[in-house]
Amino acid sequence: MLRWIGLLLIAFLLILQWKLWVGADGIREVHALRASVAAQREENDQLTRRNQALEADVKDLKHNGQAVESRARSELGLIKPGETFYQVVEPASASSSDAH
């Protein structure tokens, strides 16, 4: 009788170990979830740094007229009255003219 109980307990222990290591909520899934959490934290850190840079840019634009003018000149092509605009066009390279 004790032999059967011992075998039954060993079988039960093996089943529990199988579930722990290979089962749906086992060690593998825990490691996968930890890796997923680490990746998400890294992405959150990158987005936080990006948001901080954008926030600094917004503050600079709100409180610094030169920053607004500089951005308008570079992105919108602002030219003040009395200024002359010069556009420098570089000659096409020899390899691109041969292709046409």
Mean pLDDT: 86
Profile the largest sheet.
Answer: none
Order of helices and strands: HHHH
Q: Give the uncertain stretches in residue-range form.
A: none
Look at the helices and sheets and give the structural class.
mainly alpha
Portion in strands: under 5%
- Indicate the percent of residues in helices: over 70%
Annotate the secondary structure layout.
Blueprint (H helix, E strand, L loop, with lengths): L1 H21 L4 H37 L1 H12 L17 H6 L1
Helix pairs in contact: 2-3
Family: Belongs to the FtsB family.
Subcellular location: Cell inner membrane
Function: Essential cell division protein. May link together the upstream cell division proteins, which are predominantly cytoplasmic, with the downstream cell division proteins, which are predominantly periplasmic.
What does this structure look like?
It is found in: Cell inner membrane. Essential cell division protein. May link together the upstream cell division proteins, which are predominantly cytoplasmic, with the downstream cell division proteins, which are predominantly periplasmic. This is Cell division protein FtsB. One of its GO terms (biological process) is FtsZ-dependent cytokinesis. InterPro entries: Cell_div_FtsB, FtsL/DivIC. The chain is an all-alpha fold. It has a domain at 27-74. It is built from four helices and no strands. The chain has helices spanning 2-22, 27-63, 65-76, 94-99. The longest helix is centred in the middle third of the chain and has 37 residues, at 27-63. It is elongated. It starts with a helix and ends with a helix. The model has no long low-confidence stretch (mean pLDDT 86).
